[in-house]
Design a protein that fits this description.
CATH class of the largest domain: Alpha Beta
Shape: elongated
Radius of gyration: 22 Å
Oligomer: single chain
Strand content: 5-15%
Largest sheet: 5 strands, parallel
Number of strands: 5
CATH superfamily of the largest domain: P-loop containing nucleotide triphosphate hydrolases
Strand order of the largest sheet: 2-3-4-1-5
Length: about 270
C-alpha cells in the first residue's frame, strides 16, 4: 500500500528518506569544502579528522569523498563497529581488506601491514580506511592506530585513516596517550548545522529530487522548521516527513506554521 505522502503530493519516492544517489547528495559550500579538504588529504596520503554533532551530514561528506576518489588508485574501507579490543579491531581491519583474520595480534598486525605494502608495490593502490564513530573507540585500541600507520620506520605513507566522530573525539586525541595519532593528522574538518538559508535550500532540493517542483512548505514554516531542528539535517528529515504526513492525512497542500507545530509535538523531537 502506497504511503499517503506519495499519493497526495505525487512524489516518485519518499523525499526525506535515505538511499539518495551520489549525485543527489546535498552539499552546501561548507560541506563541499570539507569534501575537497578530505580528497586533498587522501591524495597526499595523509590522515584526516572529521568532527560534528549527530545528524549534521558527516556520512554525506564521507559518501562524497568515496565517490571522488578514483577506484584505480584508491580502495575505500568503512568501519563503524569500533567498541573493540585492539586484537578484534585489527581483525576487523583485516576482514575489510579480505585477509584471513585467524591469528595472534602480532600476526594480524604483520599481515595487515604486508597487505597494505603489497597493494602499493604491486597495484599502486592507496587504502583509505574510514573509521566512523571514532569517539567510541576504547583508549587501548585508539592508542594503537598510530602504530598501524607506521611503515618502514614511519618513512612511507601507505595508508590514510579518516577518523570520524563527535567533537569530543578531538579532546580525547589531545590526551598524552593519543598525541602520537593526533600529530599524524594533517586535516581537520568540522561540520556544523545548516544555516536558515541552507535549511530552506536543503528542503527544496530533497522535495525536487523526489519529483515535485511545487513549494510544499510556506516560507514562515521553513523558518520555523530551522528553529525547531537547529539546522540538524537528520532532524529536518524527521520533522519534515511528519509534517507532510499530517498534511497528507488532512489533504492540505502546503505546510504552514500551525501544522508544523503539530508535527513537532507528534514527532520524537518534541
Amino acid at each position: 500500500m502506497s504511503d499517503p505522502i506519495l499519493t497526495t503530493f505525487r512524489f516518485t519516492r519518499m523525499p526525506f528518506a535515505k538511499g539518495l544517489a551520489s549525485d543527489e547528495l546535498w552539499l552546501d559550500d561548507t560541506r563541499s569544502r570539507a569534501v575537497e579538504a578530505l580528497v586533498s588529504a587522501c591524495e597526499s596520503k595523509e590522515h584526516a579528522l572529521v568532527l560534528g554533532e549527530p545528524g549534521v551530514g558527516k556520512t554525506t561528506v564521507l559518501r562524497a569523498l568515496r565517490d571522488r576518489l578514483s577506484p584505480v588508485h584508491f580502495s575505500c574501507h568503512y568501519l563503524a563497529f569500533v567498541t573493540l579490543s585492539p586484537r578484534d579491531f585489527i581483525r576487523q581491519l583485516c576482514l575489510a581488506l579480505d585477509l584471513d583474520a585467524k591469528a595472534t595480534i602480532a600476526a594480524l598486525f604483520n599481515a595487515l601491514q604486508a597487505e597494505i605494502a603489497h597493494r602499493h608495490r604491486e597495484h599502486r593502490v592507496h587504502p583509505v580506511i574510514v573509521i566512523d564513530e571514532s569517539h567510541l573507540i576504547p583508549d587501548r585500541t585508539l592508542s594503537q592506530l598510530h602504530v598501524l600507520a607506521n611503515f618502514d620506520w614511519d618513512s612511507q605513507p601507505l595508508v590514510s585513516f579518516v577518523l570520524v566522530g563527535l567533537p569530543e573525539l578531538h579532546s580525547r586525541l589531545k590526551l598524552a596517550v593519543h598525541r602520537s595519532m593526533l600529530t599524524r593528522l594533517s586535516t581537520k574538518v568540522e561540520l556544523t548545522p545548516a544555516t536558515p538559508e541552507h535549511t530552506t535550500a536543503y528542503v527544496r532540493q530533497r522535495i525536487h529530487a523526489a519529483g515535485v517542483t511545487a513549494e510544499l512548505f510556506a516560507p514562515d514554516a521553513l523558518g520555523m522548521l530551522h528553529e525547531l531542528t537547529g539546522g540538524v539535517l537528520r532532524s529536518i528529515d524527521v520533522l519534515a516527513t511528519e509534517a507532510l504526513r499530517i498534511a497528507a492525512d488532512q489533504d492540505v497542500k502546503i505546510v504552514d506554521r500551525s501544522l508544523l507545530v503539530r508535527a513537532h509535538r507528534a514527532s520524537p523531537l518534541s
